[in-house]
């Protein structure tokens, strides 16, 4: 599977076109796992080959995870689908086409404590369902850790700005935004003006509760 800490890929990365109609040239594939993160599905990683991003986006993401080792100790993050090696549309995603989009699993708590059991779900992670308060539909003791999610987004934005990029857009299920922005770090995200999509078609909205989609762009 290639669990080396060294990313795969070489050459100068290029993100052509848009997230909805684009391609990726000389991208980088994430290592399958790192000190405090892992890729969510061996099937998606090895067979579908969807762990590719622009080289700068890889550097941003790895730096943010490194920062979170200090701001979110003991938390193991779950990285979800990115782009295919050469970009293009990775069904059923409508975007993720040019190496600047990443899905990050929402970090979870159970009875107020760090919870990592969802790391075993693989491709079925995308089928998880949460209510408007971020509680898991099948087990109300499990809930989204919005504070940790916000700390991660702040780390991503800081790392992006250092590289001439920024977070262009975050997609999170619309009725979860209030809970997110209530947290101390969520308030900081809002103050920075990081854009969260305000409305979505129902079919798209429904599948963005177990993860938050991030699009990066150049300043």
Total beta strand runs:
13
Q: Which CATH architecture is right?
A: 2-Layer Sandwich
Domains (count): 1
Main sheet strand line-up: 9-8-11-10
C-alpha geometry: globular
Structural class: alpha+beta
Whole-number radius of gyration? 16 Å
Distance between the termini: 35 Å
Describe the largest sheet: 4 strands, antiparallel
Task: Name the CATH class.
Answer: Alpha Beta
Q: What is the average of the pLDDT values?
A: 95
Count of helical regions: 6
What percentage of residues falls in helices of 4 or more residues?
Answer: 25-40%
Q: CATH topology, which one?
A: Muramoyl-pentapeptide Carboxypeptidase, domain 2
Portion in beta strands: 15-25%
User: What is the element string, with H for helices and E for strands?
Assistant: EEEEHEHEEEEEEHEHHHE
Low-confidence stretches: none
Secondary structure topology:
Elements: E1 14-17, E2 22-25, E3 28-29, E4 37-39, H1 42-47, E5 52-53, H2 55-71, E6 77-79, E7 101-105, E8 108-110, E9 113-115, E10 135-136, E11 139-144, H3 146-161, E12 165-171, H4 177-182, H5 184-191, H6 202-205, E13 211-218
Parallel strand pairs: 4-6
Antiparallel strand pairs: 1-2, 3-5, 7-13, 8-9, 8-11, 10-11, 12-13
Helix pairs in contact: 2-3, 3-5
